[in-house]
Amino acid sequence: MEDKRPEWSSHLSFIIATVGSAVGLGNIWRFPYIMGKNGGAVFLFTYLLIIALICIIPLCCELGLGKLYKQDAVKTFCSISPKYKWVGWLCILTVTLIPCFYFVVGGWILNYIWIFLKNQLPQNFAIYFSSFSSQTFMPCFLTILFLIMTAIFPYRGVNKGIEKANNLMMPLFALILTILAIFALTLPGAKSGLLFMFKPDFSHFDKTMILTALGQALFTLSIGMGTILTYGSYMKDDTNIVKSAYTLIICDTIIAITAGIMIFPIVFSFGVEPSAGASLAFISMPQMFSQLPCSAFFGLIFFALLFFASITSGISMMETSVAAFIDNFKISRKKAAIITTAIIAVISIPASLSFGVLSDFKIFDKTIFDLLDYTTSNIFLPFNTLIICLIAGWSIPYFWKKVFGEGFLGGVFNILLKFAVPVILICVLVTGV
Ligand code: PHE
Prior knowledge:
Layout: H1 11-22, H2 25-37, H3 41-69, H4 73-80, H5 85-118, H6 125-133, H7 137-156, H8 158-185, H9 190-198, H10 207-220, H11 227-232, H12 241-269, H13 278-289, H14 295-329, H15 333-353, H16 368-394, H17 399-404, H18 408-432
Helix pairs in contact: 1-8, 1-12, 1-14, 2-10, 2-12, 3-10, 3-12, 3-16, 3-18, 4-5, 5-7, 5-14, 5-15, 5-16, 6-13, 7-8, 7-14, 7-15, 8-12, 8-14, 9-12, 13-14, 14-15, 15-16, 16-18
């Protein structure tokens, strides 16, 4: 139990921490590729409209719930009505399952930092990656190491741990991203890279593209699992929710676009097929870095970039569960952090092994890793977001006035919250399932 609810020491720390949560692997290895493959500038324009008009609503809802109730996700929904307690626990389940696969990738990142530090680079990264990730001991060990490194911050508390980590790591992240993006723009493939990403292609403008943009937006903004709600519960009373939400959205999008400006010129300069996910970060990019004169330096800072992005997101995932355990089981923060770590450890080990000894173990035709990724991103996130909007819109009297204000904008947001956003989320869910 904590005597007093912690509070961010400044508005800037709050913004940095929420940006740290939002900016993660989703921005670096997913957004640029999705943009390139889905119509470039047309996708970007649609995405911007979607986040500015649609995702802003659940984002403000979570921040508003945090600010109004100043409790963890479970207690918040329980305070609205005890019959909604399950919504809080569903958020906690989601946010506990996401790190179980996310941290496996964190473990791989630690391994790559190590090989670039030693400067002992394999000839062929495709062979290296598949042989490394299918091992039994090392990937599991590194997943647990990444988990412990992340857990230290929620264990130490909001101000001494989470805030300090974000205030240190996010500026470093921004610095590295800028250096790499400037370097990438000097490469011969810069023009084709930028064309791949930004060239408008109207033939992609269809239902699938819109749904892809929405799914990506929910994941990247960490909406639908009580994380933003929990971070919001530590904000000061005079914080403006709508302004903070737009600041978060703008920072997240600028970083995602800069990541593309960094990645595609490199990819096109080396004549590699653009791709997303593990093959981009762990095969194509390191293979290209290994051909550069300062290979160890570029490789190292690229993986440091991924490390900062993933650990600051990981901290926010863990803090959401830690806060729930503290408030609901009346235990100390340290105990709550240890319990959360233990639960994630137990599930993340089979997720890591699903690239090796458990690769044939499939549920619904998916390995454990893929199943965790698929169910959380495509089902739990949109479903939880839908329920959060419905509860905020229909069960809390004048919620929209408290969050959005009474003016014209407040009225528009209220209609979006009650009708438009739920209908759109139902569409996403139906396609996701
Ligand atoms: N938003 C993070 C990303 O883009 C992922 C995340 C999900 C973070 C859930 C916190 C909670 O990678």
